[in-house]
Design a protein that fits this description.
The structure is a homotetramer. Chain A has five helices and two strands. By secondary structure, chain A is mainly alpha-helical. In chain A, strands 1-2 form a two-stranded antiparallel sheet. In chain A, strand 1 and strand 2 form a beta hairpin. In chain A, helix 1 crosses helix 3, helix 1 crosses helix 4 and helix 2 crosses helix 3. The longest helix of chain A has 26 residues, at about 80-105. Chain B binds a DNA duplex through helix 3.
Chain lengths: ~130, ~130, ~130, ~130
DNA sequence: GTGGTCTAGACCACC
DNA sequence: GTGGTCTAGACCACT
């Protein structure tokens, strides 16, 4: 699992860690029943204080995304996939909405907007394709 | 002209002011030949030091977006509209690209992505329509 | 590096500092790749505020005479020598033109003018020669 | 007689007025025995306080360039032409010397310097010629 | 240590 | 009234 935490980002580090875990669950990188890396492991990997990781885990526990089995570790909870997918979709929609709203506020013609979206998606597909081959 | 400057945003205040002015020119809120509010006026409106505004204007002057006539004021330059529209388009494309990239990275199906974009645009149109009537 | 800034000269101090640096590059006193004295050092040497030096450096940066590497220092850029020589030549020509123009306006005979120029150049050569030996 | 006094030049206005009169005598624009315009006339023409003109005249009197005949006016003195020519030559030589010195200090090759001087003199001649015809 | 930016307040120049 | 520049001192970011 890769960790890229920006200590001065708009979100505090603990939220970034929680978000990273939710994203991993949503994209099935880790599945319900899997055990997360240990708090200390995550802390060293993410260049972050273990307390920060603990806070993130507590948050996810409260959201029923993970459950900690004392003496064993932290595991992805049963309904976690749906919860995280819903969260991820909300995130993406929010970001998209902001970008589109800004474009509209800037007086951009809708046709142009759609052309750009098309171009960007096409470019991403091509980049993907090249990577795979 | 409305000013909302975040003193601790990712961009320094002077850049935020420059961006706000570019956006205003791009959206024809102010047109070539118009006089900008005075440096001191902008400073008080934006809750910012006059020096900070001056720096923004210096930048815009060297981009040929404005020209200052000493003792008279700062005016939107002749070719400014094109320059600012180009800048705005770049900004929007960058934001869109980031949002789409994130969506892709999160493993979102493209069909779903397009559905959302459609919904968001439709909702904006409706909101617009309601405003006008 | 010697600094003699006149706070009330016809040029503002920041321009005088920029000119001094350009001259130093043109005369190879400092060469491309060299690091300039730190902004604060120049400021104390030239009896001027660091902000004033910073403004001069900003100007030189946009003229591609220097490039600043954040946290490291300000360095003479690669093409700087040519840029500065061209600037210096323009300066000298302008001064010469003014002096000759004044001489002409004063009704001085051209023969006399050339004699003086000859004398002055000869005297300079002699002074140089004496210095070297 | 034309007056162009810069109230904020490097020389104080009274010195500028004295210099203008010396130059007029040196170039024979006015000759020994001629009466100068009245102090008040000069003052209005030069946009300057009469006291300032009076101070200039006093200076010239001390240099034996003019002599005031009470109740009659101020007249160009007998030896004035030589005095003023000498003064003018000194001025021109000084300015030339400074310009040449700067050029040398800047490391300019002497050949280049002479080429420029030649070009400038030639251009002035052409401009003169065009004016006359 | 380096530069970059900001604030605060002053002075000058232009109109 | 307008901008432009300077000084003074503080904070941040990068190395």
């Amino acid at each position: 699992m890769k960790w890229t935490i920006d200590p001065k980002g708009s979100l505090p580090p603990s939220d970034q860690i929680a978000a990273r875990i939710r994203a991993a669950v949503a994209s099935a990188e880790i599945a319900p029943g899997d055990r997360l890396p240990s708090v200390r492991q995550i802390a060293t990997d993410a260049l972050v204080n273990p307390n920060t990781v603990a806070r993130a885990i507590r948050q996810l526990e409260w959201e029923h995304v993970v459950e900690t089995r004392p003496g064993d570790g932290v595991f992805v909870a049963n309904g976690a996939a749906d919860i995280c997918k819903q969260w991820r979709d909300g995130e993406i929609r929010t970001r998209l909405a902001r970008a589109l709203e800004d474009a509209r506020a800037a007086g951009l013609a809708q046709g142009q907007l759609l052309v750009w979206i098309g171009e960007l998606i096409r470019d991403q597909e091509e980049a993907d394709f090249r990577k795979q081959s």
